[in-house]
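Subject: Protein record for review, amino acid sequence with backbone structure tokens
Why sent: The fold of this protein is of interest and is recorded here as tokens.
Enclosed: The protein record, placed directly beneath this head.
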Amino acid sequence: MSNNAPDPLVIAGRTFTSRLLVGTGKYRDMEETQAAIEASGAEIVTIAVRRTNIGQNADEPNILDVLPPDRYTYLPNTAGCYDVKTAVRTCKLARELLDGHDLVKLEVLGDEKTLFPDVIATLKAAEELIADGFKIMVYTNDDPIIARELEAMGCVAVMPLAAPIGSGLGIRNKLNIRTIVENAKVPVLVDAGVGTASDAAIAMELGCDGVLMNTAIAAAQQPVLMASAMRKAIEAGREAYRAGRMPAKRFASASSPLDGLFFD
């Protein structure tokens, strides 16, 4: 494959150049939010509807003012939802506030300490939202069987966790992520657990279509600089995946073979 060949990320029929998706929470202020997201090169930004003002509070700063809709694709998410009813209601609120916007990130959490997904509730919420016309990008665990089921239901992207949300532990189970990627016919994006640029690169080298992150950038000592690093890591990891790495070998293999050389 030529380096110059088009390599877009396609989600629900929409085409994107960047494979890095970023959140908008945990920054010091909106100015830092704006600067970091610009440095990341991201085109899709996630917005926690229950925690961020997107118009529901008229007397508070609106995140949409610093992230204009002509530049970014909004991905409202259901962060903080622990049951089907709340998750569905949150998606409907986002659709109302964003003039019919139907692309959302669904997460239904099952535990406050680990923030692991409640898979059973996630399946139920996904089914209800898809029937209501939503295009669902779904946060789930790294179980290939559940990922397959969510795709079969009609989710437009599957987003397995690499590690607990905000932990920065990196990808804990590469084999499961790789299996999900190999089985999927929709985009697979690692979501949660990335801590630094090398984690993002590894996700892309495994064949993931993209990575979504927030804390890894926002909690860095210099968020704007980390956002730039993540942008480069995503690009490098994708190129390495497309290039096809050399086989791993147990023993050394000389860079300059001895065959055909003349010796005294």
